[in-house]
Amino acid sequence: MLNLAHAPVLFAFFGTTLGALYTDPSQLTKTTYDFVVVGAGTAGNVVAARLSENPSVSVLVIEAGVSYVVLQAPLLGPQASVNSPFDWNYTTVPQKALNNQVLPYYRGFVLGGSSSTNFLTWTRGARDDYDKFAKVVGDNSFSWNKLLPFFKKSEQWVHPTDGRNDSGQYDPSVHGHSGPVYLSVTGNLSAIDSRVMATTQELSSEFPFNLDTNSGNLLGLGWIQSHMGFGKRSSSATAYLQPALDARTNIDVLIETRVTKLLKTGTSSGLPEFKSLNVVKSASSTPTVITARKEIILSAGSIGSPQILMLSGIGNPPELTKVGITPQVTLREVGKNLQDHPLFTAQWKVRDDADTFDPLTLAGVDPAPFLAAFAEWNANKTGLLTAVGGKHMGFFRLPNNSPLLRRYGDPAPGPGSAHYELAWQNGFVSVSQPFPTSGRYISNIHVLNTPTSRGTVTLQSSSAFTQPLIDPNFYSSEFDLQTMVYAVRSAQRFIRSSAWSDYVVSAYTDSQDMFALDASDETIIAYIRRWTHSIKHPMCTAAMHKDSDKGVVDNNFKVKKIKGVRIVDAAVFPFVPSAHPVAGIFGIAELAASKIKNFHGI
Ligand SMILES: Cc1cc2nc3c(=O)[nH]c(=O)nc-3n(C[C@H](O)[C@H](O)[C@H](O)COP(=O)(O)OP(=O)(O)OC[C@H]3O[C@@H](n4cnc5c(N)ncnc54)[C@H](O)[C@@H]3O)c2cc1C
Ligand SMILES: *[C@@H]1O[C@H](CO)[C@@H](O)[C@H](O)[C@H]1NC(C)=O
Ligand SMILES: *[C@@H]1O[C@H](CO)[C@@H](O)[C@H](O)[C@H]1NC(C)=O
Ligand SMILES: *[C@@H]1O[C@H](CO)[C@@H](O)[C@H](O)[C@H]1NC(C)=O
Ligand SMILES: *[C@@H]1O[C@H](CO)[C@@H](O)[C@H](O)[C@H]1NC(C)=O
């Protein structure tokens, strides 16, 4: 998202550990474990670490990606994906509603998965999101009140490294204080913070201040919380996997190795049982078979988990036959129901003397300011690199009398869920536009939180080494596009408030037409179609559902119609929460680990 051409890539290798870190299946000293976790990503590491708390249980985690803990300075987060060795390099199919553009579709290819490469924003979503989740899956454990202890269990609030008092920027009572993932508000304040706060007063009905948007009460504008502490990214690799490997001998990790398919091992209660799987180093290597005595946990993410099921013959039979796979189990919704949040950015030019991060990030600027900031981060874990680009974000709803709600109905899980999100960045930020070479800017991020478009993940080949066809199908619903138009007009009201009158000079070239006071919907829509990308929140491709003939997993995370396999990752959410999902994924993975431990009495 930022353009940090000078950013040195910072690697930290996992040091000596008790548990083993293998890089080739031939190094394994055994091929049967109690639990085999597929994907050392966000959710997989939570499950593996919790299951291995019991020393009598053996756990193997298999990860396709590499072993580094990457780009720990929060501001460098975006550099972990673009042309990086830590990404899957996926792209979408051409998006019809986006002038047929093909979009990049980043996914972490590294220990920690996408929690090692994402933008660090920590939002749980609304109370209503989880209360609806509980209804859809028919299990009260997924309600906000029941999940809150699991959200807290994953977290440890820490204070920012600039030494300021962060009281008044979050609510300590709604957070965990002794969990593995460090959580913090910005490590470096910015010059626009007071203007943002002034706007919450001046336009308090549209942009009310919310002390903590992670309290279940999501709506309003608050300080961004990020999964970082002591100036560094905290991922599921640093928070869960590394401590488990350091302390235990009953957990092993096999990296740079891909799971290609599950293998049928027998029948249990009349259902086919899949307790073995194939792993390979490369497309041409002979598979090694690995077996789980108790269960296989698929945590390969919203693209990887449905892909592995389909490669194993579990999915919609005609689609499998088409690519030469023999169907074994009919589960029509595998890879269906893909939900993601579209995002675009728009910028305003601000005063030339404004204190923004542009001197570090614009195209072709002098590298000295970046190198100085990096040196400060390296030596003291302070300064500009200890924060993501934005300090504030807000979650908002269409007004109750909005014609959109009348025309299309309200897709939000409840009245406390957000239709759209706005976030402000103290410099030029974009996921799609070319960066300018000079100037000072403020950027506005617009996100649709309750998308009604539904996409798909389908195989284009029977090889695990061919990327699946990914179609988020953005703006295939008119509600989605029109809600983004509303978000643009809302962002414009924000910047036209008096707090910005002596600061903002004009709309940036790309957005001049859209931000004209008399801009038509068509003008705004043209901008949206040109510059929308994914925020990279794909979910729901192996959705949980209470009815046996709907969805892919039951409310114990078990894959329907087969035995021996659960899925624990972003794919099982029945719908995308109305906020960034990673905090919710950590919480749901904690709940899943607890359910699995209870089931096996371990
Ligand atoms: C660039 C980017 C920015 C984002 N920003 C944010 C943000 O700021 N806030 C937020 O809340 N969310 C953000 N997200 C989304 C969030 O990080 C993800 O939704 C979340 O981390 C997904 O967790 P997961 O466990 O489902 O999958 P992942 O964490 O992606 O883990 C899946 C793991 O499985 C491995 N795997 C896949 N297939 C195989 C296979 N066949 N064999 C072996 N291993 C396999 C992968 O390599 C990966 O390590 C972002 C995502 C990206 C990519
Ligand atoms: C993605 O591309 C980078 C190089 O740009 C490469 O290092 C990396 O291995 C690729 N990822 C995969 C999964 O092939
Ligand atoms: C931070 O400020 C709050 C409210 O003013 C105060 O109660 C608290 O003691 C302060 N904390 C520290 C560590 O100074
Ligand atoms: C780190 O902090 C020390 C003490 O405040 C300071 O003297 C030093 O200049 C800082 N280092 C960098 C590289 O900023
Ligand atoms: C952010 O960090 C930089 C570098 O240390 C510092 O110069 C600046 O004053 C900090 N910003 C604020 C608002 O404190």
Automatic annotation (TrEMBL):
Its cofactor is FAD. One of its GO terms (cellular component) is extracellular region. The active site is at residues 537, 580. GO terms for molecular function: flavin adenine dinucleotide binding; pyranose dehydrogenase (acceptor) activity. Keywords: FAD, Flavoprotein, Secreted, Signal. Residues 1-19 form the signal peptide. PROSITE patterns: GMC_OXRED_2 (PS00624). InterPro entries: FAD/NAD-bd_sf (IPR036188), GMC_OxRdtase (IPR012132), GMC_OxRdtase_N (IPR000172), GMC_OxRtase_C (IPR007867). It catalyses: a pyranoside + acceptor = a pyranosid-3-ulose + reduced acceptor; pyranose + acceptor = pyranos-2,3-diulose + reduced acceptor; a pyranoside + acceptor = a pyranosid-3,4-diulose + reduced acceptor; pyranose + acceptor = pyranos-2-ulose + reduced acceptor. It comes from the Eukaryota. Residues 301-315 form the Glucose-methanol-choline oxidoreductase N-terminal domain. It is found in: Secreted. FAD binds at residues 110, 259. Gene3D superfamilies: FAD/NAD(P)-binding domain (3.50.50.60), Glucose Oxidase, domain 3 (3.30.560.10). Its EC number is 1.1.99.29. Belongs to the GMC oxidoreductase family. Catalyzes the single-oxidation or sequential double oxidation reaction of carbohydrates primarily at carbon-2 and/or carbon-3 with the concomitant reduction of the flavin. Accepts only a narrow range of electron acceptors such as substituted benzoquinones and complexed metal ions and reacts extremely slowly with O(2) as acceptor. Monomer. This is pyranose dehydrogenase (acceptor). It comes from Crucibulum laeve.
